[in-house]
Sequence to fold (199 residues):
Amino acid sequence: MPFVGLTGGMGAGKSTALAALERLGAAVLSSDAVVHELYAHDAQLRDAVVERWGAQVAPDGVVDRSAVAERAFASAEERAWLEGLLWPLVGARVAAWLTDVRAGGSARNGRPRAAVVEVPLLFEAGLEGLYDATVAVVSDETLRHERASARGHALADERSARQLSQQEKARRATFVVRNDGSEQELEQELSAVLDKLEG
Fold:
């Protein structure tokens, strides 16, 4: 079963692609969802960010992700500290999930066609070597701006989060899928990628 890393720039449609891959028979996991879960349930992580940045990053004992992001992106040192804390925890969750998938733990309709993890900073974190293949979702810049704005983000945030350009992500990826049209068109492109992976 191929182990695949899915990435793309802000507003390119990574989450839409992940949902399409699940419909096409892949087992899927979002690393962002893993981070959400860790912030919500990992007391050691919560205590560490509170110790570093103060109680205001976890009002009422609940981590405020935007407050954490504000402090983490204030400097390269702060960001490196948070990444050093988070990435090993996320990596352990992904490894446990993959073991479960390969053992048949999440096979609703038999064996999944692939195990796909959505990782926004896949190449930036140097994680591509963990995967059998990588897929970059790319989209027209105007569309990306519209999608990012609709979610209350600005693509300027992408630069501060030190993301590579989508052209560079595409250059490094095993497969590139465009997301400028309908979800159905995106699904067709992803179906072709799964066919190649299985071939």
